[in-house]
Amino acid sequence: MEVIPYFLSGLIIGSVYGLITLGLSLIFGVLRVANVAHGSFVMIGAYVAFFGFTLWGAPPPVAGIGALALGAGLGALVYYVVVKLLMKAGELNILVALFALGLLIAEAARMAWGPDFRGYTWSIGSVSLGGLVVELSKAFGALTALVTAVGLEVFLRRTYFGRAVRAVVQDPVGAQVVGIDVERVFLLSTAMGIGITTLGGVMLTLFIPVGINPYMGGIYTLISFVIAVMGGLGSIMGAYIAGLLFGVFQSVGYYVFSLMGFAQPFEMALFLAFVLLLLILLFKPTGLFRL
Amino acid sequence: MKPYIPLGIYLALMAAAFAAPEYSKLIASVAFFMALGQAVNIFVGLTRYVDFGYVAFLAMGAYGVGVVLTYLPGLGLAALPVGIALGVSMAAALAAVVGAIALRLRGAYFAIATIGG
In this prediction, does ipTM exceed 0.90? Predict the structure, then answer.
C-alpha cells in the first residue's frame, strides 16, 4: 500500500491545519465574525518563529509561547480597534474592515521585513513510521496542535469562563440576561483565537522550510475557511478533526492526482477542496459532523 | 446632476490623455481603478453583499482580451471591442454560475463562499 505514507503525512500536516483553524472557528462561534484577516496572523506567527530562531536561537517551542502571548495581545487590540467599534455598524462593515486590516498587516510586514521567502530548519532527528520517515520537528508540531485543540475543548467545557463562552455562542442575549459579561467574553475569545492562530503560524513553519513571506497568509485564510466550514463554523473539535481530514484529503489527493497524470496535482486537490466548501455551505452549513 | 460628475471626470481624463500622451499610462491606470472601484461599489456598496472573489472577474476580463490578442492576431484595432466583448461575456457567465450558488447564502456565509475565488 503505497498510499499509507501519504495518509500519515496528511494526518500530521492536517493536525497543524486544524490548529490554525481553531482560532477562526472560535472567533466565528462567539462573535459571528468571519476573520478574513486570519492568514495575516498566521504570517505573524511564522515570522516570530523565524526571527526567534535566527536572531535569538530560540527553538519553535519557545517561539510558540512567545507567539501565543503576542497574538493574544494583538487579538485584544483588534477587538478594541476594529470589532468593538464596528459591532453596531453591522457584520458587513466588520468584514470589510478586517479585510483591510489583513492587507495592512501584510504590507507592513513587507515594508519591515522585505518580500523575500525565508525559512529555517529545526532538526531534532526523525523516526520511521509505517514506511514514512517522520521528522520529529513535524511530529512536535502535530502534537502541539493536538494538545492545544484538546486543551481548548476541555477549557470550554470544564471551566467557568469556558461555560460562559459556550453560553454566548448559544445565545448572546440570553447569556447577558443571566449575568455573563458578554463583552469580556468577546474580548477574551478574540485574544485567545488570534493567539492560537499565531501559535499555529509557528508550528506551520516546521512544515514549510522556505515558505515564510509577507503574503503567505492568503492561502491559509482559504484553507482555514474550508476546514472551519467542514467542521461546522464555531465548533472547536469539529475544526480540528476537519483539519485532519483536509490534510489527508490534500496529501492523498496529491498522490492520486499525480498517478492520474495531472500536471499540477497540488492545485487540483486545492481546487476540489473549494468545490467541497461551496457544496457544504449549500447543503450542510452546520458542518459535516456535530460535536 | 450626479451622473454627470463621473462623465465629466472621464472626459477630462480623455482630454488629458490626448493633450499629454506621455502620461497616458498613468491616466489609463487611474481610469482602471475608477472602474474597479465602481464595480466593487455596485456590488458591496449597493447590494450589501461582501464579495471577496471579485478579482476573479477582473482576471476573466483580462483573459478575454488576452485570448483575442493571442489567437486572433489579424483583427488590428477591432481586437479591442471583440476582446472586451469576450472578456465581459466570460465574466458574466462565471458570475451567473457563481451567483447561482453563492447568492443562496447570506452575510458572512456569502463572504466565506466567495473568498475562494
Answer: no
Tell if the CB–CB gap between B101 and A95 is shorter than 8 Å: no
Helix, strand or coil for residue A118?
Answer: strand
Is 80 exceeded by the pLDDT of residue A38?
yes
Instruction: State the total domains in chain A.
Output: 1
Asked if residue A291 is part of any domain, the answer here is no
Give this prediction's pTM. Answer: 0.85
Find the DSSP H helices in chain A.
3-31, 38-56, 60-78, 84-86, 91-113, 136-158, 160-170, 172-177, 182-204, 217-231, 236-259, 265-283
- Judge: A92–B107 Cβ closer than 8 Å, yes or no: yes
- Cα gap A203→A64, rounded to integer Å: 7
Q: Are A10 and A73 in contact (CB under 8 A)?
A: no
Lowest mean pLDDT among A80-89, B24-33, B104-113: B104-113
In this structure, is residue A18 part of a structural domain? yes
Closest-CA distance of chain B to residue A206, Å: 25
Residues from chain A that touch B113, judged by Cβ atoms under 8 A, are 277-278, 281
Cα–Cα distance measured from residue A167 to residue A174, given in angstroms and rounded to the nearest whole number: 8
Q: Which domain holds residue A193?
A: 3-283
Residue A288 lies in a domain: no
Looking at CA atoms only, how far is residue B29 from chain A in angstroms?
Answer: 21
Distance (Å, rounded) from C-alpha A22 to C-alpha A43? 16
Higher pLDDT, A70 or A3: A70
Contact B113 A281 (CB under 8 A): yes
